[in-house]
Amino acid sequence: MISLNYYLLLSAVLFSIGVLGVLIKRNAIIMIMCIELMLNAVNLSFVALARYQNLMDGQIVVFFVMTVAAAEVAVGLAIVVAMFRLKQTEDVDEINLMKW
Amino acid sequence: MESLLFFVLAAIAVASALLVILQHKPIYSALWLVLCFFSLSGLYFLLHSEFLAIMQIIVYAGAIMVFILFVIMLLNLKGEEAKERLPFQRLIGILFSLLLLMLLVTASVYTVSMSNEMVQAGEISASFGGVKLFGKLLFSEYLLPFEVASVILLIAMIGAVIFGKKRIADREGGPE
Amino acid sequence: MLDIVWLVLFFPLLGVVVNGLFGRLLKKKVIDIVSCGAVGASFLFSLAVFYHLLKLPAKERVFEKVLFPWIVSGDFKSFVALLIDPLSSVMILMVSGVSFLIHIYSAGYMAGDRGYSRYFAYLNLFTFSMLLLILANNYLLMYIGWEAVGLCSYLLIGFWYEKKSASDAGKKAFIVNRIGDFGFALGIILIYATFKDLNFTSVFQEAPALLSSGDMTVTLITLLLFLGAVGKSAQIPLYVWLPDAMEGPTPVSALIHAATMVTAGVYMVARSSILYSLAPLSMNVVMVIGGATAIYAASIALVQTDIKKVLAYSTISQLGYMFLALGVGAYAAGIFHLLTHAFFKALLFLAAGSVIHSLSGEQDMTKMGGLKGLMPKTYGTFVVAALALGGIFPFAGFFSKDQILWNVFIQGNFVFWTLGVAAAFMTAFYIFRLIFLTFHGESRVEEEKRAHVHESPNVIVLPLLILALLSIVAGLVGIPGEGMNLIDQFLSPVFKSSAVLAESNAHHGSMALEISLMLISLSIAVLGIFIAFLFYVKKTAWPLRLKEKHSFFYRVLFNKYYIDEFYDFVIVKPIKKMSLFLWKGFDLLIIDGLVNYIASFVRMRSETYQRLQTGYIRNYALYVVIGTVFIMAYFFLK
ipTM, 2 decimals? Predict the structure, then answer.
């Protein structure tokens, strides 16, 4: 049968893809999507561990992660919209005033 | 049967995730992400978490992705320009995410295999993953986090509204 | 009963506190009462101590009173404790008595001065310090008093600090003293290293047992201590500060630079007599320097024109006599001369102050003359003091100076006896030269000052009269001969052990020899007075002719053998050059440069690291990931 390792491995792969996306992409919205990808990878590992330990607590945590993810996307996109209004671009490299 | 399903769904998930970051246009990335979420939902079904699987579809694929698509259409994004200002960022970024991947793989494959019991699928109750059991746990032990989560949502709403408002100076036909 | 000795110290200290803290607010009369009263009380208690000491049998006249522990650090314990014995009791009598008279005198002399309360605070502080020095029962406490009198000397010499020459003189005194104090401190350290104790009684008891005569350690100790005495008591080569110290008010010169502070060196050597008896080499050094200084300073005094400078060199010369006595082991004779000298030298200074005061500040003798009739009391006391200084029978100086010369002679030092007699001739000459120039002949006083010339008020004249009386009778306690030499008897228990050690040199001459030597020195002194009379009263053209014929010698003597210029060239200028170099070259360039370099180095580095803050979000995200990877890797590798 499928051992836990496979699920965790999958989760790891999805997470790294998300990280890669955050680091490489310049579009702000794609960055947010990659963050969602990372969160989902983590959700997957929580659910897998819950199943294999026969505990519902993991699933509760996933529930809350989803809630927070939703809130975060809302605010994040609001920021993106505000940023677009200011600079007329969605390129995060344009936002570079916080430096020495 | 189960393993076949798992591998198919896993392959779809990884592939669509990769495609998310490989696309130039954000709309295509969003669509591939939706597919990824769906496959994850399927995986949740496999793991006897029916409630969460449905939640995944409703919240992520249904609400969040729709939201993102709305914003993409609102901003009328054209896609990435060619000019790259940070030459080393890509290189070092790929390097370190590969390192991260290796570390995580080591963690998941080698460390968890220590304790054999946990790794194999054990017996679970019939109502595992069901709404009833979920609700029971949510409203007893995790009641406080539940309430706090609602506060978070409230705050997010307020924040989004504030960010979205046009400034007084921007508004045409202002006070004067 | 002798417990009350601490009161001798207490009152002057109280005077310092009151005058120092509140002096500005008090009226003149109150300041006078407080300060003179303080020293007066000190004198009374000294008398009481002396009286009680006399009541004790001769062999038991030693009393120590511990006031409180001062430093207790491991094995090292030092106490504030006082020692009463014949030596310290006569010294405190003299110091408090003369100080009292000078306080009274100052009330008249310094009236109207802007720093009136400051003056008396300093004067009280000085009295306290000197008494502390004398009464201390260990070297460390004595050193405190020693330094304190040096400080007061600086403060009082530079009393009129707005005058550059005065503040320079104060600095010179302090710095030259420092050289001596350095030797003194080293000597004290060496004493502690050798005896593990600094208390007089213990050190002096252990010394004969621990060290043999001529031992290297004790010779070194005594030479170092003597270096301190050379500085404080103005002997060759550290005397140069004393003539300059005449910048201070005249009562200060009388008290500090005639009667008390400069005698601290003599007192210290006398107190350490046992150590000196164990080091014949050091005693020779003391004798040679004392004798050389005596005649050297007297020669300079022969041609000086400033009245106070003559007296200053005279003091240096007489101190040389005292050290001459100590050097041949005649400790009692040295102390005897110290006491008589205090009286007549203080009188000389105070009387000179009276003259200066009435001449509105004139100190140049070539601008004086003819004051005999106008200031009779001052003139009278001046003559008494001069006769005492010159060593004329039966005034005080005769007996004390004679004791010294006698002791030098019978120890076989004929060369130094001759030097001493020659110096006595010069002494008589220069002091009467001073009198004739100042009081006799035609008045050479400047026109504006002539009108003010008057006899000084009683508050000034009274101390003069008292000191004159003392200059006459003080000698009687030292009449030579068995049973008659009271002072010698009184002091001998203190120096007995030293005398025992120096036994090999003990000679006893006959009475006849002593009397013939007395007559020789007396006639030499009278000859000196006569020649002065000849030069300055009868044949006043002679000094000028002599000056022209031997102008080279005259110039050398007048310019004090050019010693100050010599010191300036050899010592002061090189030190100044070196300091300048160390400042500009070393401190500014190297040390500042180093510090500045470190600062700029840090800044360069930080400028490099500043570049990490690029402002790009993606870079910051990358930093987060890098950090995470490293942390995880660390935990995995553990």
Answer: 0.91
